[in-house]
């Protein structure tokens, strides 16, 4: 292979070389950006559950209660409509369902007070990496509740209500000391509450029930079993609901549904588009080279020499085009990711009733977490190089089989 001649030809035909590289870059960029955005949507819908370390969230809605029914004219501590008590026996049975690796329970309460409303979450510290207790890693000031009578307050709620570290809060008629501030981050709205207490403290606010919990978080041995375990829970426990990241996927609609259900198809379409653009670029390049190939063969170049020259040029162009395309694809996906997308929460998973507005309790919009995996980068680069080399090899093979006179006649007509 004549490396100096390869460089000379690429520089001599700089306009065509640039067009080829840009064509390849556009094809690879489309492939990378579509896959990166698709992966970002998948990551976004799973974020609420990842933040909890859970695969499934199990609840019991109030019987005959439909979304939008009823008015919130209550006072004091109440159970949310979508979170009625799950018994200790049911919790034990849920933790023994085949495929479940760990289970944790929490108690979500609503408190209606004069001139306001607040949500209270009781944390089960027995499973520190499963359930809302996992959010205490975002404690920005102080510490999580460790002793009876301690409370952790969500930062925005504290600012809205003028609550400071060391203050005393009256919850359900009982005094609690504010020992920490928690900063809720994107994608944690499933477990976003105003005040976090130890589970026992929260349970003491509901004396009519014995050790109540009303949300159960399940971590599976294999996340791929999510659908199967979900069906087992629904079949074995009538009246309970089991939500997964698919609940968010259905609510987000639009692109998320397309990327979620048809991600493979979208990837294949992007891949085919990239291949077609690369083939078009290589075909156009070869068409312009036919007269030169005829001259080279006339002065003694063999078919192998011509093939080597074409493959060398294709390799350089595809490598550069692939690298630029990966950069362009990431840039395009990143620009899309900077736009906040609405992330609606199903009413049964929303800790706040739809009729109550309480400021910035939880983030309802998130930015797509755009990342390029090594798998995607490798696939994009391999697609560019392999397609370019195969196209150059096949088209070059056809050209080298032609006689110089035929090539020259074909090239100049």
Give an account of the 3D structure.
By secondary structure, this protein is of the alpha+beta class. It is built from 12 helices and 13 strands. Strands 1, 2, 3, 4, 5, 6, 7, 8, 9, 10 and 11 form an 11-stranded mixed beta sheet that branches. It has a two-stranded antiparallel sheet with strand order 12-13. A hairpin with a 2-residue loop joins strand 3 (100-113) and strand 4 (116-123). Helix 2 packs across helix 7 (245-252). The longest helix has 39 residues, at 14-52. The two termini are 30 Å apart.
Poorly predicted ranges (pLDDT <50, ≥5 residues)? Answer: 358-363
Calculate the terminal CA-CA distance, rounded to whole Å.
30 Å
Instruction: Note the main sheet.
Output: 11 strands, mixed
Average of the residue pLDDT scores:
79
H/E order of the elements?
HHEEHEEEEHEEEHEHEHHHHEEHH
Computed CA radius of gyration, to the nearest angstrom: 31 Å
Kindly estimate the percentage of residues that lie in beta strands according to DSSP: 15-25%
How much helix, percentage-wise, in residues? Answer: 40-55%
User: Helix count, per DSSP?
Assistant: 12
Structural class: alpha+beta
Number of strands: 13
Overall 3D shape: elongated
